[in-house]
Amino acid sequence: MRRSVAAIWAVLVLLATGWSGSWPATAGAVPPQAPFAAYQYGTDGCLEVGAREGQPKPYAAPAGYDPTAGYPAFGYDPAALGFTATGGTNACRYRFYDKNPRTDPSAVVIATGYCVQYAAGQLSGTGYDPQEAAPVRDAGYVRRILATSWPNSDLPSVPSTNPTVANRQRSGAVAMAIHWFTDGIAMPPDYQVPALYDSVKQVVDAALAAGPLPAPADPTPALDGPAGGDAQQLVGPYTVGANALGPVTVRIDGAGVAAYTDAAGTVPFTSGDTLPPGGRLWLRGPAGQVVLHAEGPVQAAIGTYMAGDPAARVQSMMLATAVPLTGKSERTLTLVPGDPPRLASQVSAAVLTSGAPVSDTFDVTGLRGPATLTATLYGPLPVPGGADGDCGQAGWDGAGLPVDAVYDPVPLTGDGRAVLPDRTTGEPGCYSFGARLQPADAGPVDVPPGDATETFRVDPRPVPPVLTLTTRASASTLPVGREVTDTLTVTGITPGRTVHLEPTLYGPLAPAPDGDCAGLDWTAPDLPVTARLAPHDLTADGSVTTEAVRLTAAGCYSFGTVLTHDVLTGGQEPVEHGLGNPEETLLLTAAPSPSPSPSPSPHPSPSGSATPAPVPPLPDTGADGTGTVLIGAAALLVLGATALAATRRR
Q1: In this structure, which of 69, 106, 345, 569 has its CB flanked by the most CB atoms within 10 Å?
Q2: Does residue 462 have a cis peptide bond before it, meaning omega lies within 30 degrees of 0?
Q3: How far apart are CA 313 and CA 122, in angstroms?
């Protein structure tokens, strides 16, 4: 790019937005507050895949695709596989900082990661937090890729031997391999560098051969203990931060709840104080919910899921390198006045995209002996009221509800928590879990489908649009002194996103030997620049025309436009479009030299004498004197003619 580093960072800062301090909300939990554990800013190697016009676009597999069936071979037929063209991207590895580099110049890089949500957008400066669960498809295969590929090994092999270029190629190949598992995005069958297509396939094939990896250790301070207990009785112990690297701050939300660091309830603990790693607490309070919050330093391993600030609407990532981070966690428990067994449950998310995993968590309290928990997933039912309808109103009271899955019974021996295994969502619609707790010595406890904490909606997996920039100069040939403009047209902008355009007119270059501009090298460094034109921001599809530039030197010119955006993953990598393309190139020709007027030849007069040469015009003395000069000249001619006639009469 012919841009200074400072200019590129300026574009990134313009695109970035401020981040808020909230975490993704989960039912029964209070969203933790700032600071976030890490800040994403900038990239550490990218590969262009359909990022500019003229490049082949990637394809999205249909919703029911099976990524474990293998990566399609180079040259595959998209139509035969049911694939759909999708938006291009800069497939990147991203940097994480300990502080926000936008506001703190002392920030340093602490880790790198890859995104796991295609077309979710990226904004530098966004805060990220480690999360225990990874709600993405085939997360185990993604963890395998991260553990065994670049930068943790020299895989995959890539065509370049230049370290800088090889880093870009490896990072981009790993990023595209990850998107095959998480989003069903495949490289174009006619990608312009077949060897890099093979690099992506190499990563996918290696992961499939080795198999998925389990989730890494909980990257948040552990909070272990019962799901609740009897009101006004000591409940515990709750072990805090057994996996922490240092003291853990503990905050307790619950009216009238007291905490203690001993089983006898004699050593009080104040909410907001710290405990050493593995410290224990006991609680006593009235009936109701209590939320424990913990914050402290933990080790986030390779493959840790990093959730971005939801206010910034950015893609989630997984760490490619292990790093100590500030982790936060919370635990909700219930103090109840009665004794019969109680069953509380919570689905993993209220809204999911087809292909994402879903699970259900059950907390059992008041159980004094063995019991069996059985669960059923009902659905899909049509979404009432349109695509964004409330699935709680989907008619769960009717008979003959469709059944999506019946889970194996879970044996229990007392109070505790049971988590159903992840299940990949499929057909869009409304779903709800139903469950029955059957104690050995008491009546059953049922959770019927349709409960708000058990109901969720599955939305179709969107295929991102193809973001396209087309450009055309106002003329292909002009004489010196004329003006030229460039028209920029962008399509594929999704709502809420911004495309930033920076046009430049380069030239002049000397024409080719045949006198035109075809075949000139517009990739050479230090191209001459005629004009840096005003930038434009577009938030919807449309066209803009640059200001006119008057050209004064003959030669070849070409417009080039640098595009940055937050529409797709990696969109903040500047990409120049159009430079050297025929529709952006024009030839400025020199003005023709004026032809000299031919000298008049004398012609014989009717009398045989030569016709006298024209008399030079009299000097122009101004508009007011012209009539006088003409009258004087006419008078002289009359007098001369009279004298000549008199002479001849003699």
Answers
A1: 569
A2: no
A3: 8
